[in-house]
Amino acid sequence: MNSAKRTFRYLAAIGAAGLVTMWASPAQAHEMTAYQGLDKAWISADHKSVTVQDKECDGNRVFVVVNLVGGGSAGINDEDGCSGNTGYGSFSKAIASFYVCENTEGCGTTVRVQ
Fold first, then answer.
1. 62 and 88 together in one domain
2. Domain range holding 9?
3. Which of 27, 47, 85, 96 makes the best surface tag, with the fewest CB within 10 Å?
4. What does the pLDDT look like over 30-82, one tens digit per residue?
């Protein structure tokens, strides 16, 4: 194989690797959702805010627990039940993990962010 073809293939391989890296990087900053039954919570793309919503009209209180990068945690309630409104919280630190709970039904799976 002549050197021009080798050089072209080498540059093509480097370019393809660069595109994969470029496309993979934004995946680190995206919304994520956790569930407990139909109830749900989701975090913002920058991982610094959370919204929780009670989607079941069963009279049970729904809340989200967030654990923050570097320590600390918080609980945010959906205060109005299943009326369609949501609970919201924002933080100066990024969210490391979160999960949704229903007061009589337990908690859903923990979603790890970082």
1. yes
2. 1-28
3. 27
4. 789 999 999 999 999 999 999 999 999 998 999 999 999 999 999 999 988 88
